[in-house]
Amino acid sequence: MFLRAxxxxxxxxxxxxxxxxxxxxxxxxxxxxxxxxxxxxSPRLRQSDDARQMSEIRAEQADSRFALKANPSLTSxxxxxxxxxxxxxxxxxxxxxxxxxxxWNATSFRYGQFGEVRDTGYTLxxxxxxxxxxxxxxxxxxxxxxxxxxxxxxxxxDARRQLIxxxxxxxxxxxxxxxxxxxxxxxxDRARHLHVASDARARVGMATELDVLRADxxxxxxxxxxxxxxxxxxxxxxxxxxxxxxxxxxxxxIEETELSDEALDALELGPGSAVSGSDGADVAARLAQSAxxxxxxxxxxxxxxxxxxxxxxxxxxxxxxxxxxxxTYTQRGLGTPPSEDLFGPFLNGWRFGVTSSYSVxxxxxxxxxxxxxxxxxxxxxxxxxxxxxxRSEVRQALRAWQRGKATVDIQSKAVALAERQLRLSQLRYxxxxxxxxxxxxxxxxxxxxxxxxxxxxxxRALAGINLRKVAGLLDPSKFLP
Length: 481
Hints:
Blueprint: H1 2-14, H2 16-22, H3 31-41, H4 46-63, E1 69-78, E2 84-95, E3 101-111, E4 117-129, H5 136-203, H6 209-244, H7 261-266, H8 280-294, H9 296-317, E5 322-331, H10 344-347, E6 349-357, H11 363-430, H12 437-470
Antiparallel strand pairs: 1-2, 2-3, 3-4, 4-5, 5-6
Helix pairs in contact: 1-2, 3-5, 4-5, 5-6, 5-9, 5-12, 8-11, 9-11, 11-12
């Protein structure tokens, strides 16, 4: 028995968890530091960050349609009878947000060898759509890509909020398993003392062999619980390292964290003043109102309603004929003597016109209009359903947080009763009034009560963090350096 206990202690001291315990006082990781590390380098944020960067790339591509474009051209050769011909041109164009096309073309050409014909000039033209939303259709793609950036940014922010909850959950799992290991080691120490006492009593006839066997069984169970708690602590530490973006072999130590409401409120992880008030319904309504105004998924849902309405407006404009106003100014014969200017008198000057086309078959436009009408109604319905779900989430999270306090109080009383029962059974056993059966039973009850109390405290803390998240009060920027 002594050798088995010594081996267990040696394994614990040499394990990563044992090394963690030795360095606990020097480089312990606080909960706030763990959250900051996760927000800075967790691999879980990679997908949302990549989506945001991709939306920015698409936005740059859409903006390039409205950039100034220049297209130079040069041709040189001969015609069918061998006359040389050379042409140089430069075209500059720009698409305006109103849908207008601005085009400036400058050309210079020479033709022939004997009696050479030459001309140089430029043309400036403007074409502005009139009836189809005055450029609304043209700017729709650009607006869509801008909205995709906003959507991706909000998704990334929501991912960071969820990461805070996941980090706290993993951090508390390590803390809980460490406390459970400490409880198991205390039970193991008491079981060893009970085994020694039972064996000594049995030798002098004050106890039976059954008492020794029960004490031996309690020691074996305590050793098994300690080994299992150690294994679970190592697994929880690995999970936290992965979540934080750290190497699995990197030493991990966490600081002993107080899980009270006041401590979490000081870290801005608890509901804090948002749940202050005597009326539970009033608190739920206040938290729901906060969620409606600050949760990004709710804001995004109503922005999608606006997007659907804009698409409906564009579809309505597209039912009108495609009509555009055009204006052109041409100047030819630059640098050419008036006697040789053959094209200037006919081409130079301003030209104005209106072009229009109308398709008899309007089925495509009518289908688009009906589709956008349905999209508007669907987006509005989705936004209302999301608000109802958010209110339900807030109420459920508040109930879980309130129930957690009651559970902690009950488990605290259970631990106090189990400790009292253990003291009484140990006293009866020491005085020879009873066997060690009651002691063994009380040890098991105390260990289970302490385990349940640690679990209740963790659940209460996580419920407070989740309540802050669903109410839209969790701000990732407050955890960054």
